[in-house]
Amino acid sequence: MVKKLKEIASKQSSLVFTDQLIFSGSNFLLTFLLARKLSISDFGFFSCVLLVTYFLVGICNAVIVQPFQISAAKEFSRKSLGFVFQAVLLLIFIFALLLFAAKFLPISAIEFFKRNLSAVILFTTAYIFQDFVRKILLTLDHIQILLFIDCIFLAVFPFIWVEESLSLFKSLYIIGIINFIATIPGIIYFIKNSDFSLKNNSLFRYHFKEGKWLLSASVVQWFSNNFFTLVAGIYLGTNALGALRLVQSFFGIINIILQTVENYYLPKTALLHYQNKGQEKKELLKNMSKGMAVLGVLIAGFFIFSEPIITFLGGQKYHQYGFVIRLISVLYIVILYGYPTRIAIRILEQNKVFFIGYCISFMFSLLSFHFLLKYFELYGAVSGLVINQVLMVVYWKILLNKKNISVWA
């Protein structure tokens, strides 16, 4: 029995699951700890910094990480590993310069950013670099190094916990420094296993060719997903943004489950679809529908017990924002409804349709955000996110019907 457990634990899939569990779990817990330790306005500012960081991470993924993942799957080389390492250092330096240049913009809304500039730059660059290291090591199947990085990052909790008067500045500095320290095992791996050169014309052309389209999709998808959240901070203040981000972080649990479902069902369904196994596909859809129903019940529970949940997550100061959990619950019910369509679009390789769906969603955000936020505040922000999802799913369904193609039929 013990031997069997050791075999299971040593399997690469088990290590990947463990890494994801530690990484996602530590980020969730860190978010809730910060929500409790920081004031609502400081947590809102932290959420602003995090949203901007996600945007920069998306750019890094599009032009460096994702092209490397494709090329490494075909043929790994020490030179390509050295190239992406050099490229990410250059990109991070450019990001740092841009963040520093933002200090001179005459915009009163980013005054907090100017006051905490050094901490923001440290946090952002460390986060981007750690994300890059994690994804490259995962691509190359070095999960043991990832687990080591995960364990080092856990040191952030005692530092945050024991800090009596935690401020935004201190929290960004602590997280940034520990993120950089955590990447040291990855840096050592890169130095030992890379060939560094300044003559990388072919690799540069490859990353430019593949990355420019991935970058376009990444930017549109980020704005489609985060535009209402970011503008809510400008229109409604950092308190409202902090509450909205706290709830979105809590629903990240559902995101992980949905991502797992997609990673499991998408390849299985694709295999059955291209093998013309209709009955097996229907059985798979039935099982997936049951899983979605269970998630629906869980989300309904969040809706009913919204006030105790928000108080538990952020403390009594968030009690008035219980309605945000109810609103986000409605959003996730819509997401669940559209998930089979999303999977179908991916399986049928309708990438253009997938991209245009996000473009339509973003265009609606641009046209409606002022009206929704001015007159309906947080209700308007979440309603905009709901309508975005509805527009995408309806467009995808119409196009699939128009082309007379289906996965589930």
Automatic annotation (TrEMBL):
InterPro entries given in the database record: Poly_Biosynth_Transport
Membrane-protein topology: Multi-pass membrane protein
Pfam hit, one: Polysacc_synt_3
PANTHER family: O-ANTIGEN TRANSPORTER-RELATED (PTHR30250:SF11), PST FAMILY PREDICTED COLANIC ACID TRANSPORTER (PTHR30250)
Keyword Transmembrane included in the entry's annotation: yes
Protein name, UniProt field: Membrane protein involved in the export of O-antigen and teichoic acid
Membrane spanning stretches: 21-38, 44-68, 80-105, 117-133, 145-161, 173-192, 213-236, 242-266, 287-306, 318-339, 351-372, 378-396
Record organism: Chryseobacterium joostei
Subcellular location: Cell membrane
Keywords: Cell membrane, Membrane, Transmembrane, Transmembrane helix
Keyword Transmembrane helix among UniProt keywords: yes
Origin superkingdom: Bacteria
